[in-house]
Amino acid sequence: MHPHGSFRTGFDLVDASGAAVGSFVGSAWRERGRIRDGGQEWEFRRERGRRFVLAGPTAEYAAADRLSLWTERWRVSTGGLAYELVTPSWWSRRYELRAGGHPVGRLDPKGMFGNKAHVELPAELPPAVGVFVVAVVMTIWRRQGAAAGGAAAGAGAAAAG
Fold first, then answer.
1. Sheet containing 102-109: order of strands
2. Looking at per-residue confidence, does 130 or 48 come out higher?
3. How many domains does one find in the chain?
4. How far is residue 101's CA from residue 124's CA, in Å, rounded to a whole number?
5. Mean pLDDT of 83-106
């Protein structure tokens, strides 16, 4: 994965040879964006607080549904494929993509707060869905960073007061 810049919300998903297989351009203000896969373009958007959708011009192509408010477990579905996106431990920012309870991919952040990650996804995952999975995780990481920043700012204000 190659981010489009330090303060941008987009990235290119690349294969092992470094060739781009898809890209994401996100909105700076909302949890939405555009995913490009070859000549096709898809819409990435949040629906309600616990669902992300990848939609084409006529239908939904993939979805990620948070399974519970209390855990970071998401069900990712596309066509006949179903996966689970989970953090292996509560203190880790890493996510695993699992099929049938077994890890088939992973997303490891590079650094504590950056927008870079090492991504491994299964070959059977369509490129647009791979970009979608990465966009979901990047959005979750951005939420967590904003929450941590807000908590730190609140603690600093309380300490100064």
1. 2-3, 11-14, 20-26, 32-37, 40-47, 51-55, 60-66, 73-78, 81-86, 95-99, 102-109, 117-120
2. 130
3. 1
4. 17
5. 90
Structure tokens at 97: 């993509």
Question: Which residues, at least 6 apart from 113, have a Cβ–Cβ distance to it below 8 Å?
Answer: 145
Cβ neighbour number for residue 157 with a 10 Å cutoff:
9
Most confidently modeled range among 13-17, 83-87, 88-92, 151-155: 83-87
Unique residue bearing structure tokens 């006949």: 80
Range(s) of the domain holding residue 101: 2-148
Is position 154 within any domain?
Answer: no
Whether 3 has a pLDDT exceeding 70, the answer reads no
pTM for the full predicted model: 0.81
Cα within 13 Å of Cα(108), Cβ side: 4
Domain of 140, CATH number, reads 2.40.160
Got the DSSP string for 14-37?
A: E-TTS-EEEEEEE-SSSSEEEEEE
Q: Is residue 6 part of a domain?
A: yes
Could you tell me the two tokens for 142? 């951005």
